[in-house]
Amino acid sequence: MFKSTVWAFLGVLSTQLSTFVISVILARILAPEEFGQIALLLVIVAFCDIFINGGFTVALIQKKDAGTEDFSTVAMFSLIVALFFYILLFFCSNEIAHFFDIENFSRKIRYLGIIIFPKVLFSLQSAYCRKNLKFQKLYFFTVLTNLIGGGIAIILAKRGYGVYALINQQLITSFSASILLSIFSGLHLRLFFSWELFKRIYSFSWKIFSIDFLTFCFQNIRSVIVGKMYPLDVLGYFNKGSTYATFATGTISTTLSSVMLPFLSKEQDSPQNSKKVIRRSIQLTVLIIYPLIFGLIACANNLVLILLTDKWVKAVIFLQIFASFGLWAKPQVICLEAIKAKGLGSVYLRIEIIRKILEFCILIPSVFIGIKALALSSSLACFLAWFPIAFVARKKLNYSYKEQIDDCLPAFLSSLLMGIVAYCFNFIHFNPYVIIVLQVGTGLLLYTVFVFMFDVPGKDYILDKLNSLFLKLQEKI
C-alpha cells in the first residue's frame, strides 16, 4: 500500500498544486463577484452530477469482479440520465436566474451545463484507474488537463472575459480529461447494458447516492444561502476561504481515501490487516494535517495579502474557520472509507443521516446569526459527528475509543502549541513576507521538537520509510 500511497500522494499533490497556482493567478486578475458567480454555477452542476453518478463509481470500485461490462452498463445509464438533466437544466435556467437575481445567469447555466456529459466518462475512467491502482496515469492526465484549461482561462481573463474565463476553464478541463483517459486508461467502454448487472451494482450504489445527496445538500446549502442573502462578492470571499482551506489539507486525505477504498475492499475478509491500515492511515493523516491546519490559521492574514492582494482580505476569516473543519473531518473520512470498503452501506447511511440531523440543527439558527456563524456551523457539526462515528468504529472496525484518542491527541496538542506561538507573530506590525517566514520557520522547528517530545504516533513509520529510501539511494549511487 505504501507504494500506491506515494504515487497517489504525488498525483494529488501535483493536481492540487497546479489547480492552486492557476486559482491564485485568476484571483489576482478577476473580481470576487465573478468567483461568486462560478461558485453558484458549480453548485447547480454538482446537483445534477449527484443524480447522474448515483454512487456508481464507489460501487464499481467496491465490487471485486467489476469488468468492462459493469462499467459500460453504468455508462449507458448515466449518459441517459445526464441528457434528461441537461434538458431539465436548459428549461429551468430562467427560473434559477430569477431566484438569484443575476443578470444573464440563465445563459451561463446552459453553457456550463454541457459539462455533465464529459464528467460521466471521466468519473468512470477515474474509478477504473483507482480500482486498479493506476494512479500514475490518472494524475498525469489530470494535471495535464488542469494546466491546459487553466492556461486558456488565464488568457481569457486577461482579455476581459470575466466569469466566462472560469466557465471555459471548467469545460476545457473536463472535456480534455475525459477524452485522454478514454484513450489511455485501459478501459474501453462499449454500447452495452445488462439489467442484471445494473441491479447488482444499484443494490450498493443507492446507499452511496443517498449519502452523497445528503452530503451535497449540507455542503452546498451554505453557498446557496449566501448567494441568495448576500452580495456576490461576499460569496466570492466565502467560497475562496473554503477552497483554499480544502487545498491545504485535502491532498493528504484525498490521497489516503483514493488508496484506502480499493485496498481495503481487497482486504475486507481480513479484519486485522484492515484495522492496521486504518490506524496507520489516521496516524499519518493527523501527523501531517494537524500542523498544516493550525499553521494555516496562524498565517492566514499574511498568506492572503501575499498571494491574493488586499482585495481578498475579507476572505481571511472564512479561511481560518473552514481550516478548523479539517481537524475533525479528516480522521472521520478514513473511518468512513473503511466502513464503505467492508460493504456496510446501510451502516454508512445511518451514520450520515445522524450527521446531517446534527448539522441541520446547528445550521438553522446560524442562518439568523450571521455569515460567520454560518461558516462556523460546519466545523461545529463535524466535531459533534465524531461521536457516532467513533462508536461505529469501535463496534464494526474493532477500533476502541482509547486507540482513537491515542492516535490523534498527541498530534493535536503538538500542533496546537505550535500554532499558538506562530499566531503571536501577527501582533508584530512588519513586512508580511518577513513575518510569514518567521511563522513558518518557528512553527516547523517547534513542531519537530513537540513530535519527539510527545512521541507522536506515525513518526517512527515515516522515519523508517525515509531511512529505507535513503539506503536505496545510497546503493544506487
What does this structure look like?
The protein is mainly alpha-helical. It has 2 domains: 1-205, no CATH class; 230-477, no CATH class. Helix content is 86%, strand content 0%. The chain contains 17 helices and no strands. α6 (116-131) crosses α8 and α11 (271-308) runs parallel beside α15 (401-424). The longest helix has 38 residues, at 271-308. It is globular and about 60 Å long. It starts with a helix and ends with a helix. The model has no long low-confidence stretch (mean pLDDT 86).
Number of DSSP strand runs:
0
Pick out the low-confidence regions: none
Number of folding domains?
A: 2
Shape: globular
- Tell me the structural class: mainly alpha
Report the portion of residues in β strands.
under 5%
Distance between the termini: 26 Å
Major sheet attributes: none
Mean pLDDT: 86
Order of helices and strands: HHHHHHHHHHHHHHHHH
Oligomeric state as shown = single chain
Cα-atom radius of gyration: 22 Å
Number of helices: 17
Helix proportion range? over 70%
Q: What order do the helices and strands come in, and which of them pair?
A:
Layout: H1 2-29, H2 32-53, H3 56-62, H4 68-100, H5 105-112, H6 116-131, H7 135-158, H8 163-184, H9 195-229, H10 232-266, H11 271-308, H12 316-341, H13 345-369, H14 371-396, H15 401-424, H16 432-453, H17 459-476
Can you tag this structure with a few keywords?
single chain, 17 helices, 2 domains, 477 residues, mainly alpha
